[in-house]
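Hey L., structure's done. Input below.
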Amino acid sequence: MKRLDASPPLRARYGHAAAFHSHSVWILGGFLAQTSPTSTDSSFSSDVWRVNLQSCSSPNALCLLPEQVTVKASWSSRYNHAAVSHRAALMVLGGQAEGGRSFNDVWQSSDGDLWTQVTASAAWSRRRSGHALVAFKDHLLVIGGRLEDAMISREVWVSADGSSWSQWSPPAGFVKITQFGAAVNNGTQLLMFGGRSFNEVENSFWVIE
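Output:
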């Protein structure tokens, strides 16, 4: 593992979403840190960056080349949202804005610049942030998350297109969970690990096939 420096550097942030789409890494939104210890310019963001990895002039070196696709996407500025590549489009779902307001909207874009709102209010009507979003077996899955009323969810919602959603029954013993890791293995297994469940921190693994 090595640290890679981007040129130009991206502004420091957290709670952003990241996805691999169209042969590039994409970084979307998040909460932007203040630019100096004395400044007051921290803010929620809806900017979109495309980051490519290329060889540098130094032997055996790699460089990150970020390109800001848009300063402000059509979706509202937010953090703790989720993004994934699905059916040749970038998808952005949910998240939280300034003041604690959460979202249950769904957006898509083929190029990261022009965005279309798939739905303003998905069937998982309780707005949420800190959820997991994966593309699994040609479907989108939204799992868990912190709801707008501060409750934590164990719901699993599935959609082929981001517009029509149906609820899956989670496996027995699956707890209410947020801020956990989820990844798809070879297109055939969905793996989940860790996260927070109210005042507990989890260390369990789950597999869905």
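The domain at 13-208 is CATH 2.120.10.80 (Neuraminidase). The chain has a mean pLDDT of 90.

-- N.
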